[in-house]
Amino acid sequence: MPVVPPTPEELAELAARHGFRLGEADRKSFAGLVEANLAAHEAVERLYTRSAPSAPHRDYEWPEDNPLGAWYVRTRIPPTGDGPLSGREVVIKDNIAVAGVPMMNGSRAVEGFVPRRDATVVSRVLAAGGTIVGKAVCEDLCYSGSSFTSASGPVRNPWDPTRHAGGSSSGNAALLAAGEADFAIGGDQGGSVRMPAAFCGVVGHKPTHGLVPYTGAFPIETTIDHLGPMTRTVRDAALLLSVLAGDDGFDPRQFRTPEPPDYLAAVEQDIRGVRVGVLTEGFGLPMSEPGVDDAVRAAADRLAAAGAVVSEVSVPWHRDGLDVWTVIGTDGTARQMIDGNGYGMNVPGRYDPELMVHFAQGRRVHADDMSDTLKTMILTGAYAAERYDMRHYAMARELAWELRAGYDAALTEVDVLVLPTVPYVAKPLPGPDATREERMVNALGMVGNTAPFDASGHPAISVPAAPVDGLPTGLMIAGRRFDDAMCLRVAAAYEREVGGFPVAAR
After folding, report:
1. Where is the Amidase domain (predicted)?
2. Per the confidence metrics, is the pTM higher than 0.90?
3. Has 192 been annotated as catalytic?
4. In angstroms, how far is CA 349 from the centroid of its own chain?
5. How many angstroms separate the CA atoms of 419 and 431, rounded?
6. Which of these is catalytic: 150, 170, 192, 462?
7. Which one of the listed residues 168, 169, 170, 371 is annotated catalytic?
8. What are the average pLDDT values for consecutive 10-residue runs of the chain, which has 506 residues?
9. For residue 458, what are the CA distances in angstroms to 51, 52, 55, 111?
């Protein structure tokens, strides 16, 4: 479409917004200069239209049998090659592009969008022999740790359908726990792979930041965006990570990413002599349930029985990490995901112009339909960024280096850190009479242990610890950056020690 130059009124408003005092002659002069520059924008649009791909035709259907509310759309995309995922069915979180298949990202603002390109992780799954069987519901723009904010409705926990499934990869966890898929790929910015894994009793691994390319997934904030595997066993998580990991040449998050090791070999190793640090600050949080803390300490004892050397370790920065992450997750997210229409600017990665425009227009039309978590984030982040000139975001990103250094120092003394993934078991889904404040606590009250590792970039995996009151809990194992293999190794040893993980009744 043609690029329309600004009207005199629009130019005057822009000038005033930026503090320019322009007389009539100045405005006329700048109007001509701006219009001349906009000719390049029109040329870029013509060039892009000439080279942009078209979405392939892929069959899909809206799910009729969906008791957990976990399926967004069903499909069956055959593999493009043979490999380690041959014969396995994979579900994709609905913030990840599958070309030719509708994408909603849990939001009315994205509803109706159909991607033209597969995300890198989707292409890698298909090339490795996997069959993609559908998109799983996720929370509204992935901004919730519970499972009631999606515009398509709540996702229910297979262990107790009156309770939430965790978020934001809510549909993934519910489908895995219900046995409706072999593997899933989720996203994690504040715990969104690990928290639903803990609440639903499955395995969820947040890789080191940058290990798995984020290309083709809807961004929240580049410095905390992660994609990772969700499975029912640790070996399957290692298998899927081995397919997903590695530089794709398009993702700016992948900075000095090393060649991935053999994750499958790692999970076969025992843990005799491996040093396990029980992270003091991960227990006894204000919202912690004693039964969950006890289950995770008992899990540490099982690691000791398997040969690990277990000790208590303190990282005071862990308790401060939530504040660091919160500023990044409000100010940074408001600027990138909201003001920047998902992608923002100034990074040399792949963009999706069609998605950016669709979201920008949808966001304006459906602003009132956004969840309370999103509205609170936008109001907080926009105010802080504008009132304080983004200095708190810059401070938080600087403090993230100190947070990382705090974990790094502890990880010179031990090989992994263990702590509860979430401080309590899944809570009931909020009822229609719940207050906004109650919904906010239900949506974000569980991120204290997971979110700091998104800000620091360390890998962390959640595996099921012993159930509490008949509901799953999560043991989180965090390791050195790019030593995802050690996290998987310890997790697999624990799985063997307890004789496998329980499954939800079907």
Report:
1. 82-488
2. yes
3. yes
4. 18
5. 31
6. 192
7. 168
8. 91 94 94 96 95 95 97 98 98 98 98 98 98 98 98 98 98 98 98 98 98 98 98 98 97 92 98 98 98 98 98 98 98 97 95 98 97 97 96 98 98 98 98 96 97 98 98 98 98 98 83
9. 38, 36, 35, 33
